[in-house]
Specification:
The complex is a heterodimer of chains A (173) and B (630). With 173 residues, chain A is an alpha+beta fold. Chain A is built from two helices and six strands; from the N terminus they run ααββββββ. A three-stranded antiparallel sheet of chain A has the order 1-4-5. A three-stranded mixed sheet of chain A has the order 2-6-3, with no helix packed on it. In chain B, α6 packs antiparallel against α8. Classes of the chains: A alpha+beta (173), B alpha+beta (630).
Chain lengths: 173, 630
Amino acid sequence: MDERDDIEVAPDEDSGAEEAGAKAAKLRDELKACRAEKQEYMDGWQRAKADYVNALKRFEEDKKKERERGVLTAAEALLPAFDAIERAKAHGDVPEGFAAIVKQLESAFASLGLAAVGKEGEAFDPALHEAYGQDAVEDEKKDGIVTAVLEPGWKMGETLVRPAKVRVGQFAR
Amino acid sequence: MAKILGIDLGTTNSAMAIVEGGEPRVLENAEGARTTPSIVAMGKNGERIVGTLAKRQSVTNPLNTIYQIKRFIGHRFDEPEVQKDVKAVPFTVQKAENGGIEVKMGDKFYRPEEVSAMILGKLKADAEAKLGEKITEAVITVPAYFNDDQRSATKAAGQIAGLEVKRIINEPTAAALAYGANKKKDEKIAVFDFGGGTFDISILEVGAADAQGEGGIIEVKSTDGDAHLGGKDIDQKIIGWLAEEFKKESGIDVLTDALARQRLDEAAEKAKIELSSAMETEVNIPFLTSDASGPRHLLIKMSRAKLEELASEFVQRAMDITKRAMEASPFKVGDINEVILVGGQTRMPAIQQAVEKFFGKKPNMSVNPDEVVAIGAAIQAGILQGDVKDILLVDVIPLSLAIETMGGVATKLIERNTAIPTSRSQTFSTAADNQPSVEIHITQGERAMSADNKSLGRFMLDGIPPAPRGLPQVEVTFDVDASGILTVKAKEKTTGKEQSIRIEGSTGLSKEDIDRMKADAEANAEADKKRQELVEARNIADQAVYAAEKAIKEHGEKAGAEVVKAVQDKVEDVKNAQKGEDAARIKSATEALSAELSKIGEAMAKSQPSQGDQKPPEASGPTDAEFKEK
């Protein structure tokens, strides 16, 4: 039976047409309520299914991000040691044998896609740098320019792992 | 239906969360962080910068970088506390026309709610980008001590940001919601919030059930705190001690060097965190500074006892304030049913112990203390959203459902906490040649062996056609309907013969039973793992022996007596090992048998060099699980 069809109720032999009419009206009301409920359930089901499909898509995205985050976390843990090596190099403190190990570390970092950020002379950008101090400059052009890199920053692809710690030029007007 | 965002608008950091699939979860901002610094700045080009980026440029732009605006929202300029805070900040704060407060950024003055709106605006934009849908409504939390002006100003901040603020709720109330207070009745809860910069203690009462029989209204009965007491104070104490120790050794005062000071700050926080789980840690800062003699390094051991000594004055102050809050409430300490910890600093064992000692009960910290307020705000948002009819609740099974496989192992088909209704199938096989039937024994629980779990029922599937072990395919399907009724069906795929059983009340265990079974599984995890390994080793050994005996029978003549004897000796070794309980011994005997078995193949290959397509018999890898005939 097509649910769009109206219900026809034949009157009982023993009851009058009036009673049949009341019965039909009651059944029509019930049918209307059932249809409304059915639609509600269908809507709910479809919404839940859609939510599920969307969630699956987001899980895949999240999985990819978690993998990247895992690499990032590991890289972050190694960075202080790498910084120490850079400081040692600046002091001329790295003997030949260790220099080879440093090279290995550097190439391991590069293979992970890690690249240093922060250079003297570039414009200060809070997306890449964190300011730790200001240096007075006499040239207005040097206002807001990185005057010293205290600690290099690192990025992995487009993601900033750690901002570079810098000093920034300040031109006093 | 649009989601309502739950927002913890903090003094130093803010966080946001949303309810998805019935569960609250914190949303990351555009930078991928779960918290956003509550900092707003105006850059040199007039651009607005909010959050982490604003924090990074604050040193270059102190006059136009606004932080801790929450200390000013809803206040009047002339208040003594405001005057103290004004002196502590580098940006310009002035009296507004109506006696309120204005802060300067660039050339303009802004009301505190306008600045807060900028923070809320960033959270809103980041949430929309993350979820891919517009957010127009929010629930925002405020401290319990906020007055009407402060609450109105916070609501106004939301409106300026384009958010209809459906509810302003107290931070301790939000924390209580995160721990399910909305389902509780007649409870007294203490919320101990020790964050980075502020300390708050609140005593709450959850009233009688509401008209629908749901959890009662949560009321703040007393609140107290110190707006300038937090984890940062402890960090500063540690930095001071490290600098002092370094000076004793090197004669250098590193506190005057901004970068060295920052490195000490990071190391201090790291040490503090490590000492929450370890009794001692090493603070290692190579090349901290240098002098005429060359580079100087800091390497100091720090014990938990030392940290607790440094932190003791702050912990004591927090407990004194807590005592005050209890005295101001209508309750005694013994009346408190539950203690909730909020704020990252509460991870410190000394604080947890002090709180436990004071209240005489273990504090609750199962929800991340940095995120609990945002999560509670999201739960409130979810409750408000639930006013719209959502008739469908999703239930889960509380304990795993399994069948018993060879060796008495409980092989799980449906893991605990799986949402229902659900259906899972797995295919098994026979353990012996020509096995005519299999017994399906269904158990419930988390233990590795069936005997340790609750037996739900068992039935036989017979009429399995004669076949070597491992060949028949018996598909077992577990189906749990929305009412928790479990139907288990076993079907032999070649004949199509099937049998099933219906088990009611598989989810009918009491909460105590469920908790006890989970605790049992955890307590016995190590022992269960060993038993499971032993069973697996025996199963693999069985298969290796079977393969070897079959190979000897089929190819022994061709391989030669010497090879056969060697294999038979190894089979004996395996059988002897199986009599004992040493899984490692069984494994090594099995490996030796497999190695010996391959010689039958080699011997056959040598005797018939032209038949290169003959493969040597191998001990086959284990089928995942097999049924033993009872």
